[in-house]
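Appendix C reproduces, verbatim, an entry submitted by the partner laboratory led by Prof. M.T., so that reviewers can inspect both the input and the predicted structure.
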Amino acid sequence: MGSQWAHYQYIASLKITNAGKQSNFNMYTNSQVQDIIEKKVAEIYLPDQPSLLYKPVEYILEDGGKRIRPTLTMLAANLYSDTIDQAIGSALAVEVFHNFTLLHDDIMDKALVRRSRATVHRKWNENVAILSGDAMVILAYHLLCEGTKAEHLSEMLKVFNLAAIEVCEGQQYDMDFETRGEVPIGEYIDMIRLKTAVLMAAALEMGAIAGGAEMRQRKAIYEFGINLGLAFQIQDDLLDTYGNPETFGKQIGGDIAVGKKTFLFITALSKADKLQTAELKRMDGTVEERFRRTRDIYDQLGVKEEAEKAIAEYFRKALSVLEGCPDSGDRSQPLLEYAHSLMQREK
């Protein structure tokens, strides 16, 4: 990536190296947290029947994915508590809800591959994917209610409910954009804040609640999540065009194939001349042909570099907020390391 991005990677690595070498509290590592999550996800009870309702749920949950959101929840809990068991209910709820959105998103996007496997609607059918996704929403609330301390449940539900409806709003805006000729970059940022960033921010805030954080601490960790989520989604846009097909886990060029208004596409339109604009908006030819000509224009206009700058800037904001999280001190080391690893991903 560009020099600005490399600069922020270097800053982050210095903070990681220097953080909390002499710690007296119980600080969980990323791998420990992820081991706990995998074990607990595998323990989620799903009935055998009706099999067409529960098998798809098992199918998408067993594949693993990156478990980003529940990891954020558990690490946020550890910011303010030596124990994290009290956060597992909210962590599982966020993970199940996130996977529900994938089932329905894949139908809307006509996606054939998810995590290098057939999407649920392709393996079974759209009706199965819709109903299994609906069941996952209910399961998410069950896990949240069953795994949350009574004194925290009301606040947890407020955060979770707001994120859940905002994710749906973001998805609707994303679909609306597909039928619009042009979308301002500001509207795009608002859309991905809703569609992607708010769930990551909510996952962090719910972990902070479980850890006993105060409101000022919750607000700070939520803001960290928003900026991390924005960087993460623009990075996802970038990987969809410039990622390695062998590691990305989804179809490269899928956004271009369905005419999504991504950061790259919107930036290209803002810089394109009339001929390039006409080429970008052409939907004829095969998927491969559309991908090649769109990527060629991106290369001509320096769109990849613009995306890298935006990722670096939102990540810088996230690091700044995390550094200033009230009373977290050296406890932020694992979360900082994890955020840094997300920005180095290839899928």
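The chain has 17 helices and two strands. Additional entries are available on request from the coordinating office.
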